[in-house]
Amino acid sequence: MKGTILAVLALLACALVSTAGLATAAAPPAKTDAQVLGHVQIDANDPTVAYVTARYVCQGGMTAETHLWVSVKQTASRLPDNRLKAEESSGISAAWSQSHPTSAVVCDGQWHTQTFTVSHAEYGFGELMAGQAYVQFCLFGGDGTFVFSMRFAEVK
Q1: Domain ranges of the chain
Q2: Which residue, of 9, 21, 138, 142, is most buried by count of CB atoms within 10 Å of its CB?
Q3: In the prediction, which pLDDT does 30 show?
């Protein structure tokens, strides 16, 4: 009987150890991610201003490392042009509006969907027009993790 009790206790101890390991492995890791959603909306009163909606999650709160940059670039044809994906692509752009709306970012480990304004307030040129644009959403979370979403999007 004593041997049976010891065997059962040993089995329970093994089960507890393996369950603890599984619980740790099943916990979701901290995630940082971003996705540009839908189309870019031009401001009805100012074609240098537009609105970009994105869904993102980041960690670490607001720190010196938290930073967001949002950019919308178009060529003269207002069609998708893969050259806009290259560095220094503003040289072939007919319109460029951008911003650094870092203060609007919430890095709390939860998903957020927000609309951000791009304009010429910091720097930019040309007027955005209906067509396609290359949109860049580049985010550093409060923990310094970098994530981006860059894609062509319809401009309305």
Answers
A1: 33-155
A2: 142
A3: 84
Q: How far is residue 77's CA from residue 74's CA, in Å, rounded to a whole number?
A: 8
Residue (of 60, 71, 75, 48) closest to 135 by Cα position: 71
Q: 67-97: b or e for each residue (b if 16 or more CB lie within 10 Å)?
A: bbbbbbbbbeebebbeebeeeebbeebebbb
Phi/psi of residue 80, each to 5°? Answer: -60, 135
The tokens describing 77, both together, are 């044809």
Q: What is the pLDDT of residues 50-106, one digit of tens each?
A: 999 999 999 999 999 999 999 999 999 999 999 999 998 989 999 999 999 999 999
Q: What is the CATH number of domain 33-155?
A: 2.60.40
Is beta strand 46-57 parallel, antiparallel or unpaired with respect to 95-99? Answer: unpaired
Pull the structure tokens for residue 89: 């692509």
Q: Is the overall model pTM greater than 0.85, yes or no? A: no
- Which residues make beta-bridge pairs with 151? 135
Residue 138's closest CA among 155, 118, 121? Answer: 118
In terms of Cβ atoms closer than 10 Å to its own Cβ (0-12, 13-18, 19+), residue 110 is exposed
